[in-house]
Design brief:
The protein is an alpha+beta fold. The chain contains 4 helices and 7 strands; from the N terminus they run βααβββαβαββ. The protein has a single domain, classed as Aminopeptidase (3-Layer(aba) Sandwich), CATH 3.40.630.30. One of its GO terms (cellular component) is ribosome.
Amino acid sequence: MIRKAIKDDISKIVNIMKDVVNKMISEGNPQWDSSYPTKDIYLKDIENEDLYVFIKGDQIVAAACINQIQAEEYKNIKWKISSDNSFVIHRIIIDPNFQNQGIAVDFMKFAEKLAIKSNVFSIRIDTFSMNKKAQNLFKKLGYFEVGKVYFRNKKEPFICFEKNII
């Protein structure tokens, strides 16, 4: 089940985020670190009603932000859909104990259904160039690579993807 996150969820979300960051670092993926993402970012997502959590059994096992806020760096991308009437998926985190169980696919499909319901034209997402698992997932789900951006003083680029929804 996927639902909107509430403030009471924050400690579990932060614990998952820390576990995900530690796993990324241990695998040689410097996409995230202690400076990003942060508890405050997730609290703002909750406050804006943009953060969703995935519940398995009775526990939160994943979270993702879905909104229409596009990074400033996105302005230089030649998107397939020229309209800014797009959802952007940010900061997908899945508890490492629940990874490789289809939760990311479920979140992406949830976002697509939400986009259709909201009359949004496309979904945009980016991932670190070293995160091949995410890139392969997005391609498998019909997202097209549209360009590269640089975030947070990282030397390697982030790959931007887009999928036409309507």
